[in-house]
Amino acid sequence: MLASPIRARLSLRLLLVALLAICCSSVVAAQASAAQTSPALRKASKAYKVADRAVVSAAKKTKACERRKGAKSRACAKQRGALQKAGTRLARAQRNLAKLGRRAKTAAATVAAPTITVSGTTLKWNAVGSTNSYVFVTKVLGTADKYSVVSGTSITPPAVPGKTVRYSVRASVNGSAWAKEVSVTYPSTPTTPTEPTTPTNPTTPTNPTTPTTPSVDTKAAPALSTSGNTVRWNKVGDVGTYVFVSKVPGAADQYSAVSGTSTTPAVVPGKTVRYSVRTAVEGSSWAPEVSITYPADSTTPTNPTTPTNPTNPTTPTNPTTPPTSNGSFSMGLVAGSALTYEYDFIKNLGAKTARLEFTIGTSASSMRSTIDLYARNGIRPLLLASFYGRIPSSSEAQNLGTWAKEFGPNGTFWQGKSYPTSVRPTEIEFGNETSYSYQFSDTYGKGGFGQIASYQQRAKDYAVRAKEAAQSIKAANTGIGLIAIGEPSGAGSYWVNNMFAAVPDLGSYVSGWTIHPYGPDWQTRLDQTIQYTEARGSPKLPLYITEWGLATDNGRCLDDNYGYDKCMTYSSAASTLRSTINNMKSRYGSRLREFYLYQAHDQRASGATSGREHYFGALKDNNTAKGDYTNEVKSLLAAN
């Protein structure tokens, strides 16, 4: 029998040998796994490429037939049917590929993640093991994540103009880890891909109206916008045929081939329809979707559960009466609480109107110096009467009559002053976001807060006080009006219905509705304000967007951005602001009276925090410019 120390040494050696064998076998297994591409992914990727090729072919055949036979010719029904089937197969193939591509998100990672580097618009990464196949994901706000299988270790994705696009990659084997995301911000108009290996000739003149050069990225996503019921996009290179998709809730997606850069889809009453478009080029990207909300019809409100009261004898207004305004549109800035301090920022940006907040009980005499500072420098105040987390008293509501008497057109404040009439306030805003839940402890954070009795009572009390304030204002000065909160703020029709339950003719007292439609769903919120108020007999009053904005620290990721890209660059913010205002003006015409950008400047230095609320400024906190975004704000303020 061996001595105990000898037995112990042998046991230890055997254990080490066993552990080494296990380790080596794991490494071999991992290497073997890395060398083996998932058969399911290979099959899904091939199916997607076949479907993509079929869509492009079907679109070109459809458009060729329509050019010969006519755009609406029945002789092209076969080609249109083939395009519809091809589009449906493509969408199904992409969903299947995405399902397989996402699996690694929940699986335990046993294969190392690649490291991505960005060079221009080209992405490169290191090889993982001996595999040459990778799963690549493209993430664009407003579209579903797009997955593809890439051979090799680099790719130049199609551009998505005006967007910041996030990318990641992993080896196409089970258990592989995703790389840390990188992002590329594309200019608002498509350009030639910036692959560094492609030489350029700076001496060759270019013609921007004839983009026929083969170096243009014809796979780039067009930039979509809406104008009324028309959907428009930019021309991409020399592409003449585009694939257009309409997505109606509850119905199959509809695909069509379009020549040119616009189309007016068929109206779908009572529905919000989403649209996208891509070039008829294999491998091209779909544009981020836009949407159009169509009214149910010309006489019926779009919400069948919203009660109407067309026969109420106490409603003296005609819902078809147009607003009495001249239809002019103005854009201004929201000032912070320190109004004297805010002035320099607002003046720097060139604003001609600014939203100035005073608590509702403030005396007119104590407001004079602030009003004078802004007015003598050419800035018209929008007077916000605030009452955070409560409903004002009757005497406070009537106090607004003293504001009107002094500061409204022909008011006592202007006597003896040579200031232009354009700087005299014409509206007093009654409260800030009182229809929201966050100001009140009984509704904050609860689902369905519109059904809570205290919330409904608050809407009724608000309407009563708004009526009293409007009466007091009109008695003091007929040149200034009261604008009231018409935004549902997530409560459905409860806010508006309860206001009108308390004051059925409220629409005859106020001169407009205020809304704060932050985020890309602004159209839904504005449409709801119109729908709910007019269903209760209100006239078609003007709309006042007294707050809307974008949080941006030039690509640095923040904690939120109301549904927009949390890592938005200044350039992207500029294009988003421009397109949003243009689309709002196009959709609502003369009803859109005023738009106030929140806010003049950032609240913290760049990079100081990740808090969304600190970076809504048109300027940095030190009164310096935020690049393209500041330039765009100044341009829009000057034009409006």
Automatic annotation (TrEMBL):
Region Disordered: which residues? Answer: 184-226, 292-328
* Record keywords: Coiled coil, Signal
| Keyword Coiled coil set for record | yes
The record's Gene3D superfamilies line, in alphabetical order, gives:
Glycosidases (3.20.20.80)
Listed InterPro entries = GH
Q: What does UniProt give as the signal peptide span?
A: 1-29
Q: Which domain of life is it from?
A: Bacteria
Output this protein's name: Asl1-like glycosyl hydrolase catalytic domain-containing protein
